[in-house]
Write a structure and sequence with these properties.
- The structure is a single chain.
- By secondary structure, the chain is of the alpha+beta class.
- It has 2 domains: 1-31; 33-82, no CATH class.
- Helices cover 35% and strands 22% of the residues.
- The chain contains 1 helix and 4 strands.
- The chain has one helix at 3-31; strands at residues 33-39, 44-47, 52-53, 74-78.
- It has a 4-stranded mixed β-sheet.
- Strand 1 (33-39) and strand 2 form a beta hairpin.
- It is rod-shaped, with a radius of gyration of 21 Å.
C-alpha cells in the first residue's frame, strides 16, 4: 500500500474541507445582525446584544460603523419612526 499517496490525498481533502468550513462560517456571520435602536431621551443607541453606544456627531452610518463593537455582528439600525 502506498501510504504517501494516501497521505497526500487526505491532506488535499482536509484543505478543501477547511476552506468550505471557513466559507460557511463567514456566511453565517454575515447573516447575523445586531439591531441598534436610538434612545432619543438619553441620546445613545441601545444594541440587541445588550450594550450601548453613542456618537459625538451623527449615527452609525454617518461614522462608517458597520459592525457592532460588542458582538461583532453587522449592525441593523432600527428606525422607530417608520
Amino acid at each position: 500500500m502506498d501510504y504517501d499517496v494516501i497521505f497526500r490525498f487526505v491532506k488535499r481533502l482536509l484543505k478543501k474541507i477547511s476552506t468550505v468550513i471557513k466559507k460557511i462560517c463567514s456566511l453565517i456571520k454575515s447573516m447575523n445582525k445586531c439591531e441598534w435602536r436610538y434612545d432619543k431621551e438619553d441620546g445613545y443607541y441601545e444594541t440587541e446584544c445588550e450594550s450601548n453606544f453613542s456618537f459625538v456627531d451623527g449615527g452609525p452610518c454617518d461614522n462608517d460603523i458597520t459592525y457592532c463593537h460588542n458582538c461583532g455582528n453587522k449592525i441593523k439600525v432600527i428606525d422607530d419612526e417608520e
